[in-house]
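Q: What would this chain look like folded?
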Amino acid sequence: MVVRNSPLPRMSRRGRATIGVLIGVFVLFTLLGWGVDAWTDWLWFDEVAFTQVFTGKLITQLLLFLTVGAAMAVIVGGNLYLAFRLRPMLRPPSAEQATLERYRMVLTPRVGTWIAVLSVVVGLFAGLSAQSRWQDWLLFRNAQPFGVADPEFGVDIGFYVFEFPFWRYLLGAGFTAVVLSVIGALAVHYIFGGVRLQGIGDRMTTAARAHLTTLVAIFVLLKAVAYVLDRRALLLNYNNGTDLYGAGYADINALLPAKEILAYISIVVAIAIIVFSNAVMRNLTWPGVSLALLGISAVAIGGIYPWAVQTFEVNPSIRDKEAEYIQRSINATRDAFGVAASDVKGFGANNLTPPPELTSDSAVVPNIRLLDPQLVSETYTQLQQVRGFYDFGAKLDIDRYEVDGKSQDYVVGVREINYSELTDQQNNWINRHTVYTHGYGLVAAPANRVVCNGQPYFVSGFLNEAQTDPAQAQQQQECNSNEELIKVDQPRVYYGEQTREEANDYAIVGSTSPDDRAEFDRPGANNTDTYYTYTGSGGIPIGSLTRRLLYAVKNAETNFLLSDAVNDNSRLMYVRDPRSRVEKVAPFLTIDGDPYPSVVDGKIVWILDGYTTSATYPYSQRINLQTETEDATTGVGAFALAGQDVNYMRNSVKATVDAYDGTVTLYEFDTQDPVLKAWNKAFGGDLVKPKSEIPAALAEHLRYPVDLFKVQRNLLSKFHVTDPGGYFTGDDFWAVPNTPGQSDSQTKQPPYYLNTQLGEQQQTTFQLTAALSPAKRQNLASIMSGWYDEAGNPQLQVLELPDSTPVLGPEQVFQRMTTEGDARTAISQLTADGAARIDYGNLLSLPFGDGILYVEPIYVQSNDENAYPLLQRVLLSYGDGKYVVLANSITEGINTLVDRARRGQTSPPSTPPGSSGGTPATPAPTGSASPAAPATPTPNATPSAPAGNVSLDQAAQRVQDAITEVRAAQQSGDFERYGRALTQLDAAMKEWDAAQRAATTPSPQG
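A: My prediction, written as structure tokens:
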């Protein structure tokens, strides 16, 4: 008897048991991890009362996984099984068939099992892919009309935004199912002899041919559907000829009809494949010819013909041919990004001389902001820190408050715990998670006032009570308010920007009794610390053994079970960063990169702007959010947005996060946004509160969002041109200037908040402003501002200067102000001994009196350890840069500008303002800033006597040039250049010292 060996070795029982155990353990731990994550997520969403988001998303993902996965498994598995059932019972003998026989022996006894396993694997991957499309499905299911039709087909924009993406996905899934079915069926037919490469007779059985050609015909029919959808997709494509999005002349007049013709050809080819393969000729010759003709038609009709139209008809007169389609793109882009209603006004800026009205103005000048939120963050930290682990972040925020009946802008920051600054002794698990749990207080200072040698005048957020000693109280009152002017009922901050989920910055709060105060609260009097027990509703109760075990597994931390700090009353706070918190609650929103804290009804709350976006708005320009919103503040106190391509954007939601209990509230802000309406409907209809429910106290602190403004600013730099011909030539395009003083880094100048009155505005308004320059030039082109009117509606205004304006742009005026003779010398003297460095604040561009007033604060920071920036001088310029003043204060600078204009003197006097040192000027009654004299005394005169062959002015210029080169080299990262720059600076400083010693005839004091 001949014993036939199995083609594959049989695994031992022990081996099979081992593999089974390993697979079981893997599945168990996978399910355990998923279960723990799902359970803890449910608890978190239950805490913030947004369980409808958790269940809605989870159920949608599960249904998509099961539906698409099952459909894909059934289609692929059904075709595999059909191919097996259609196998021939007798096969012509050949060497090929003899080789395949061993595989048939393995597959045939368990063919159902093999097909089921392959189908499940295919379905699993298809389901996993489908569940990521949960947003597309929810928008598809809850689609809303835009009430606006596309300009070509007359179809509502809602089809493109809500339905088109999901149809494209379904079509792609259909193609995938058919392709996998063809490949799988062909493999089964080959293994079981339905398709042969060798032997006598036909190479394919009738049944196999019918099966495979039917699948190919279905593929071609799907291609016909794709051509139909491609006709709509033309309105979303990029047009190389105009550098815009949307169908152009060649697309509409050549490619669009070509797609329709190809759709009909595809249907004919599909029918021909079935008929000629199975009913007429019963071979693959004519089906192959049909597919070849379809391919040739696609190339000729869909490729060569549109190319010929573009090349020979459009390109020779592209401006005229594309005018209609350029106009479509302009209109759609302006509508999609909310700039269609922007108010563009002409601003002559004809006045180049400082007007006398500057000295008596009560709207613009008194509100000029001098404190730079990015620079004074370090000052806040040093003066209001008290403990080394307190931090205010890399950048503060701007908000406005009404104090003593007057509304003005304040630089605000929250005193939080920075866990990375805890010492090694403080950074054990108990301290990190149960002791140092919260920050304390919102610290604010008027944005237009400094005291005590250049410090901010703090009015809130104090840790200790007022001094009882009269002398100390007097000193405190000079540098700080003697009482809280912005009152906070609950100053403790458990939720803030310094906490990071990836660093496990969770907090465990709550004690067994009110007297057991375990949380560090704040430093007290007489070097004693005060402690606190959390009494709010924030956090998840973890007193039960089950909850403690659950979070011990989630965080891989046994202290949840072993530590006495976790008790029956304990609550766990995590996801404490306000931005991450809102993103988790509303995953369909894009959150602005600059949340800011405010005091609303006695509570500290974080206010965040949420955007609804889409990438399928026809004819609208597509942008990358990360690229368009990146500037000098990105990554320095402001989060970078994800690199998401969008062509529709609305500030539809204002969100708040309570800093004490973490409560998240979403308010509708754009009442007309169909995308927000769809999302709200998808999650039950009450996810977002109506705009009418925004509390009045909160509405007072809402501000125009930064990232939306950046996007609108960048788009308006081109799309303020609404004439197609003018847009095509691009002669009137604008550009965002680089940050003054940092031109080498090519970082864009960020917009800035001002409480001021611009152009024809009738009252002082808290607004976001930015200056723009003409493309490839640096003079001033326009000033743009965004704000909310009294009804809470967003407003955009653009003050457009004439093309021939002599007014300098931000980069030019900065160079003029900082390199002008005497101002340059005085600035150099501030750091002449090398013991300090200069930082420049926001360069403000302020329209006033049919001219432009520029203001540039100057900060000096000592090189000593723990030193912080102090506002020491203010540079001012008016008009075309001929009038430049370096002053101790805004009041002094304005008076000097007007006085020079009256005397017709454009160049500054020999002694710069403030060069005599001394005490700070007394603050003006309007609250304008009064920077103090520098800590390092400056000479009383500017001698012109030479030191050898170098005058004092020349030496100062060389010092300034050397400092500029050092900064540029440091920013470039070129260490060799940096070394050369330091050597040049050392030589320039020696020349400066020599010139000072040689000067023997000082001019009289100014």
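The first helix runs from residue 13 to 48.
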